[in-house]
Design goal:
heterodimer, A: two-stranded antiparallel sheet, two-stranded antiparallel ribbon, 11 helices, B: mainly alpha, ABC transporter involved in vitamin B12 uptake, BtuC, 2 domains, 6 strands, 65% helix
Chain lengths: 305, 461
C-alpha cells in the first residue's frame, strides 16, 4: 500500500511532465494533422536553455533566492524555446503545408536530428548535471519503516503544471486566439474566409506548444538535475503515446493520457521490471492504437468515400 | 524615402528594394541572435572540481549572427530577383533527352558499380582501396538495399513503416546467434534469416492491419523500439549492450578469407591481403541489392504487385473490388522484412560484431528518409538518395583539409549527423516529392508515358 502510494505520487509527477509535452503534440496534430517528430527534441532543447539560464542566474547575477531563480528560469526557457519552435515552423514546416503528406513528417524527423546534433555539437555529448535546485520533502506518513514522501520538487511540479494548464485552458477556450485555433482545426479554408489569419494562428500554436514543452523541460531539469542531448527522443515518444491514449486532438485527453502513462511507467518499474519500463509504455501505445485508435477522449475518425 | 535600385528589366516585379532587404537582414540577424544566444553564446563546461560552469563564446555567436544576416541580405538582393526572373514553366512531361538519359542510365550505373572495385584499385592503390570499397561501396549498398526493401512496403504498398530496422536487427541477430551456436554457414543462414525476418514482418504486421498513415508509422516505431529494448535487456541470449562478437565471416563457397594454407589467397595462389574479402563482400551485397531490385521490378507486374499499388491508391476501392487487403498488406510486410533480414545477416557477417546500438530509431528514420527523399516508388531515386545521404555523410570523415581552414581542433565528423538532418529538411523543401518525381507506369497500354509523382497517392495506410 505504501509503495503504491509513493509510486502514485511519483507517477503523477512524471505524468505531469509527459502531459505538458503531450499537449504540444496534440495541438499541432489537431491543427495541421502532422506528427511533430521534433517536439521531443524541442523539449530537450528547452531543458538545455533552462540549464544555461539557471547557471547564468547563479554564477553571473548571483541570485540566490530559489523561488525567484526558478521563476526566471521558467520565463527565459519559455521565451527562447518559443522562438526556436516558431523558427522551426517557419523554416521547415510552413513551406510544406498543403504538400504531399509524408513531406512534413520527414522534415520533422530531419529537424529532430538537427536539434539533437546541434545541442551535441554546441554543448558537448556528456551528461550535464547540476546540484539539486530544491531540496526537502514532506513525510506524509510512515508505515513499516517505509516513509511515503512528497518532495518539494514534486509539489512544485504539480502546482506549476496545474497553474499553467489553467492559464492555457483559458487561452484556448476563452480568447480570440483560442477561437481562431479551434476554427482552423475544423476547417482552415473556411476560417481564412471569415478573416482568421491561418498562418499566424498556426505559428502561435507552435509557440504555445513550445512554451508548454519548456515548462516540462524546466521541471525535468529541476526534478532529475541532469540532461543530455539524447534526452528528447524517449520522453517525446512517451508524450506522443500520452496524446494518442487521450485521443489525439483532445487537450484534456493529452493531460490525462500523460498522467496515465506516467503512472503505468512508475507502477511497472515498481512491481515488474525497471529494464522493461519503456516496453510497457510502447506496448500501451501499440495496444491503444490497435484497439482504441480514437483514444479515450477523441472523436472517431470515419472515412467517407 | 525608400531607395530602389533597378537590377535590369522594367517589370515592377524585377525591382529590388534595398531598404526592405536591409531591414529583413537585420530582423533575421536579430532572430539568429535570439536563437543561438542560449546554446552558442554560452557553453556549459565541467571545471576541475567537476562542477558545471558557464563560459561565453561571444566571437562565435557574433560571427554566426553576421553570417546569417549577410546570407539573408544576399538572398533578397541576388537569389530572389534571380528566382523571379527565371521563367516559370509548367512542369513539362519528360523531355526527349531525359528519356534518352533514362534509357541509358540504368545499364551505365550497373556497369559502374560492377567496375567500381577495379576503378578504386586502379586510382587509390592497393593499400587505400579497402577503405573506399568498404566505407563507401559496401556501406552505401547496404542502405540502397534497405531502401529498396522498404520501398516495397512504403513506396509500393503505401504502408508507412518507421520500425523497419527491427527486421534488419532480426536478420543480423538470427545470423549471429545461429552461426555461433550451431556453426551453420553463411550460405544456409542467409535465406534462413530472411525467412525469420519475414515471419516477424507478418507477426508485427498482423496487429496493425487496421491502422493507416501516421498511426501506422508510430506503432511500427514502437515495435522497433520494443525489439531493441528486448535485445538490450535479454542478456542471456543477446549479451545486452555488449553485443555479440566473433561472428563467423562468410566464406567463398567454403574457402575462408584468411592467411591459412587453405585460405582464399593460398588456394588461388595470391599473396594474402584483406582486400579480397572486402571485394567479395562488395560483390555479395551488390548481388543482394540487385536481387532486391529485380524481384521488386518483377513483382510489380504480378497480381500481388498490382494489388499493392492499388492498395496504396485507395484501400476502400480495393476491398470493394475483391482484393484481400489482409493478405496484400501482409505480403508487403513480409517481402520488405525478408530483404531487411538478408541485409541484416550480411551486415552481421561483414562486421563480425553486432550490438543493439546499430539498430536504433535513427537507422529506421535514415532508411525511410532515403525512400522518401529518393521519390517513393522510384528505384533509381532511392539509389541516388542513398548515395547522396550516406556517401555525403561518409565523405565528411575524409575532409581533413577543413582543419587547415578552421584550425586543428575542428572535427568534421562531429557535424555529420547535423548536416544529414539539415539535408533532409532542405531536400524536402526543395522537392517534397523526392529527387525523382516521375514514375514509370506499371502497365503500358498504348504508348510509354511518364507520370508525375503528384498523381501517385502517398498511401494512407
Amino acid at each position: 500500500m505504501e509503495v503504491f502510494l509513493q509510486q502514485l505520487i511519483n507517477g503523477i509527477t512524471l505524468g505531469s511532465i509527459y502531459g505538458l509535452i503531450a499537449i504540444g503534440y496534440t495541438m499541432v496534430f489537431g491543427i495541421i494533422g502532422m506528427v511533430n517528430f521534433a517536439h521531443g527534441d524541442v523539449f530537450m532543447v528547452s531543458a538545455f536553455i533552462a540549464l544555461v539560464a539557471f547557471l547564468f542566474l547563479v554564477s553571473f547575477l548571483g541570485i540566490s533566492s530559489i523561488a525567484l531563480s526558478l521563476f526566471l528560469v521558467l520565463i527565459v526557457a519559455m521565451l527562447f524555446t518559443s522562438l526556436v519552435n516558431w523558427t522551426i515552423e517557419r523554416l521547415a514546416y510552413r513551406p510544406l503545408r498543403g504538400s504531399f503528406r509524408l513531406a512534413p513528417l520527414i522534415s520533422a524527423i530531419g529537424m529532430s536530428i538537427v536539434l539533437s546534433n546541434f545541442v551535441q555539437v554546441a554543448q558537448g555529448p556528456r551528461n550535464k548535471s547540476i546540484p539539486p535546485m530544491v531540496q526537502g520533502e514532506f513525510v506524509l506518513f510512515t508505515k513499516n519503516d517505509y516513509p511515503v514522501t512528497l518532495s518539494f520538487k514534486q509539489l512544485i511540479i504539480w502546482i506549476v503544471t496545474a497553474v499553467l494548464l489553467a492559464c492555457f485552458w483559458y487561452l484556448v477556450s476563452k480568447t480570440r486566439l483560442g477561437r481562431a485555433q479551434r476554427a482552423c482545426e475544423q476547417d482552415q479554408k473556411m476560417a481564412a474566409l471569415v478573416g482568421v489569419d491561418v498562418d499566424r494562428t498556426i505559428s502561435m500554436t507552435f509557440v504555445i506548444a513550445a512554451a508548454l514543452a519548456a515548462v516540462a523541460g524546466t521541471m525535468y531539469l529541476m526534478y532529475y538535475g541532469v540532461v543530455s542531448f539524447s534526452d528528447g527522443f524517449v520522453p517525446g515518444v512517451k508524450a506522443f503515446t500520452a496524446a494518442v491514449l487521450g485521443g489525439i486532438g483532445s487537450l484534456p485527453g493529452a493531460v490525462i493520457g500523460g498522467i496515465l502513462i506516467g503512472l503505468i511507467e512508475t507502477m511497472w518499474s515498481a512491481y515488474f521490471s525497471i529494464d522493461y519500463k519503456d516496453v510497457a509504455a510502447f506496448s500501451v501505445l501499440a495496444i491503444t492504437l490497435i484497439f482504441l485508435p480514437q483514444g479515450l477522449f477523441g472523436r472517431p475518425d470515419v472515412e467517407k468515400v | 524615402m525608400s531607395k530602389r535600385s533597378d537590377m535590369g528589366g522594367d517589370a515592377p516585379g524585377m525591382r529590388v528594394d534595398t531598404v526592405r532587404a536591409l531591414r529583413d537582414a537585420a530582423v533575421t540577424a536579430l532572430l539568429a541572435f535570439g536563437l543561438f544566444l542560449p546554446l552558442i553564446g554560452f557553453q556549459t563546461v565541467t571545471d576541475v572540481r567537476n562542477d558545471l560552469i558557464l563560459t561565453t563564446r561571444w566571437p562565435l555567436l557574433f560571427s554566426i549572427v553576421v553570417i546569417v544576416g549577410i546570407g539573408r541580405l544576399a538572398y533578397s538582393l541576388v537569389v530572389e530577383p534571380w528566382l523571379r526572373q527565371r521563367p516559370r514553366l509548367p512542369v513539362a512531361p519528360m523531355s526527349a533527352w531525359r528519356t534518352q538519359v533514362g534509357k541509358w542510365f540504368t545499364p551505365f550505373a550497373i556497369g559502374f558499380v560492377i567496375a567500381y572495385p577495379a576503378i578504386v584499385l586502379a586510382t587509390a592503390g592497393f593499400g587505400r582501396a579497402v577503405k573506399w570499397i568498404d566505407n563507401f561501396g559496401i556501406q552505401i549498398l547496404i542502405y540502397v538495399m534497405l531502401g529498396w526493401g522498404l520501398n516495397i512496403v512504403v513506396g509500393l504498398a503505401g504502408l508507412l513503416d518507421l520500425g523497419y530496422v527491427a527486421f534488419y536487427a532480426v536478420g543480423a541477430y538470427s545470423y549471429a546467434l545461429l552461426a555461433k551456436t550451431f556453426g551453420f554457414s553463411f550460405w544456409i543462414l542467409l535465406p534462413l534469416s530472411g525467412i525469420l525476418a519475414s515471419f516477424w514482418g507478418i507477426l508485427l504486421g498482423f496487429p496493425v492491419l487496421r491502422l493507416r498513415g501516421d498511426y501506422l508509422a508510430i506503432v511500427t516505431l514502437a515495435f522497433g523500439e520494443i525489439i531493441r529494448i528486448v535485445l538490450i535487456n535479454w542478456v542471456d541470449l543477446t549479451n545486452g549492450y555488449a553485443g555479440i562478437t566473433g561472428i563467423p565471416r562468410p566464406t567463398f563457397f567454403g574457402i575462408p578469407f584468411n592467411s591459412d594454407d587453405d585460405g582464399f589467397a593460398a588456394v588461388f595462389g595470391l599473396e594474402f591481403s584483406p582486400i579480397y574479402r572486402t571485394i567479395f563482400l562488395y560483390y555479395l551485397i551488390l548481388a543482394l541489392a540487385l536481387l532486391t531490385a529485380f524481384v521488386t521490378v518483377r513483382l510489380r507486374r504480378l497480381p500481388v504487385g498490382r494489388a499493392w499499388e492499388a492498395l496504396r491508391e485507395d484501400e476502400i476501392a480495393c476491398r470493394s473490388l475483391g482484393i484481400n487487403t489482409t493478405n496484400t498488406k501482409l505480403t508487403a510486410f513480409a517481402m520488405g522484412a525478408m530483404f531487411a533480414g538478408f541485409a541484416g545477416s550480411f551486415f552481421a557477417a561483414r562486421q563480425g560484431f553486432i550490438s543493439p546500438d546499430s539498430f536504433t530509431f535513427l537507422e529506421s528514420a535514415t532508411i525511410l528518409s532515403i525512400v522518401v527523399l529518393g521519390g517513393m516508388g522510384s528505384q533509381i531515386g532511392v539509389a541516388i538518395a542513398a548515395i547522396a545521404m550516406i556517401g555525403g555523410t561518409e565523405i565528411m570523415r575524409e575532409l581533413d583539409f577543413l582543419k587547415l581552414i578552421f584550425g586543428t581542433t575542428f572535427d568534421p565528423t562531429q557535424y555529420r549527423m547535423l548536416l544529414f538532418g539539415l539535408a533532409m529538411v532542405l531536400i524536402m523543401i526543395w522537392r517534397p516529392r523526392g529527387l525523382i518525381a516521375t514514375r514509370e507506369p506499371s502497365i503500358i497500354l498504348k504508348e510509354r508515358k511518364a507520370i508525375g509523382a503528384d498523381l501517385v497517392k502517398e498511401g494512407h495506410g
